[in-house]
Amino acid sequence: MKINKTLILSLFVSVFSLSLCSADAERVLTFQDSINFGLKNSQELLALNEDIEVARLRVDEARSNIFPRIDLNFNASQFDNQFPTVLAPSFNSLYLPGGKNDQYYSAKATMWQYLYAGGRYSTTLDLAKANLAQCVGQYEAEKVKALKEIKISFIELLAANKKIAAYETALNEINNKLSKHYSSDMANLKDKLSRELLNIKHEYEKSKIAYLKTIGVELDTTFDISGDFESSSADYDVNKCIALAYQFRPELNQKQFQEKIDALRLNLSLTERFPTISLGANYEWGGYQFPLDNDNWNATINFNLPIFDGWAAWSRIVQRKHQIRQGKIRRAQIEDEVELEVRDALIDYKFWKSEYEKVIVQSEPKQIEAVLLSNVYLIDISCSFQKSKAMLEWAIGKPLDQISK
Which architecture does CATH list for 25-67+118-275+310-402? Predict the structure, then answer.
């Protein structure tokens, strides 16, 4: 029995120790992990997603206008009237006869429906759908921007991590040489590289906090990163990149939706000049005791023709036309900005691609410091090249691996 207790206790201690070790172990984050966490935890994307849900519900609200309104109302009144009276509209404008009575009961069923409104309600539905599409466009624009920031943050952190590894490799080699044969030059080099390594680690720790903020993870998270720079590269035609940016950049799509919204608002203003036809029906029961023995019913068709409103409708129409012209000007401005961003990003991409291709074919030096400097230079060039790819993807609005050369 003692053996069993001892065995159980040993197993418990082992499991508890393993759980502590796993809790203290560093989390290793990859490039894909960074994107997943960043998009999932982005406060701006979460807020915009709520805007999409609100816009979707507004579409449902606008669609409700095609259905009739049906109400059922019940009233119980006690009164002492010198003459007949009508209650306030909030009490369904109930008619109470003259006299005194302890209780008067009434019930009413009402149905009301627009038969024709000059396209007002169909335009309202189209406007709600366009607003939903615009909210989706805003979400996609913010997503592209968030992807760019996540990629650049990861690339910079990965470059710092690789620099630390390169310095540590060089210092290990120096320590091995010093253990076999002491050299003042080698010792001075060790001191120099050690100071540089401390500075790099200092900046690395600050970059880790900025990276955690970018991907929306707790700032006290213990982690390490894993990954390599992509070595693939391709040439891209500037005119094709600009054409793709016009097609895929969310900002331009968003502007198209805004132009559609402005056009629908103009149509909505125009419908104010059209007549409206509506149908209503009521059935009412009333009396001093149950069952209610008095009833009324009616069915009414209403025709309303706007004649004059002090030129308010005309003013709104002119406003909408100015907004449409303003939208076209804004669109041209955004197209110019997109073209500028694509050309600028492509210039950087071609430059760093050329530098990267030169560096990777250079012969490796023999001396420790020269090897370190060569490795660090390669890391810097690779980092700049990868960042230029991320900027080009953002400028086009589409990953480069999905673009035909």
Answer: Up-down Bundle (1.20)
